[in-house]
Design a protein that fits this description.
The chain is an all-alpha fold. It has a domain at about 30-85. The protein has helices at about 1-10, 10-25, 30-55, 80-85. It is elongated and about 50 Å long.
Length: about 110
């Protein structure tokens, strides 16, 4: 962890690049890596919205999940979240589910 902090102090962009390369196997300096990061950031924001909906309105869809093992660097969310990820909307109204998931929004039950 000390190495990451020291690298971040010296060059934040290089520290972020190393994080994404090591943890998620994509290079944010390449076009494909930038697209992968953008998709990851969208799914992360979607997850934050899902949690808020869960606590304030109940689960909107029980089959939604965050498809990554790691979170993005919070500084990558930037200041243009609404414009870049939500197309001007202030909330996410529908959650994307994996193609293998049922469209039934109810939770799994043992019976």
């Amino acid at each position: 962890m000390k190495d990451f902090v020291n690298t971040y102090k010296e060059d934040a962009n290089e520290a972020k690049r190393n994080y994404y390369l090591q943890k998620l196997k994509f290079d944010v300096k390449e076009t494909k890596g930038k697209k992968d990061l953008h998709k990851m950031l969208f799914r992360y924001l979607e997850g934050l919205q899902w949690v808020l909906f869960y606590y304030y309105r109940g689960a909107q869809h029980w089959r939604w999940y965050y498809p990554y093992h790691y979170a993005p660097m919070i500084s990558d969310l930037g200041t243009t979240i609404v414009r870049d990820f939500l197309d001007g909307n202030t909330i996410i109204t529908s959650f994307k589910t994996d193609t293998n998931c049922s469209e039934n929004p109810k939770p799994y039950t043992p019976f």
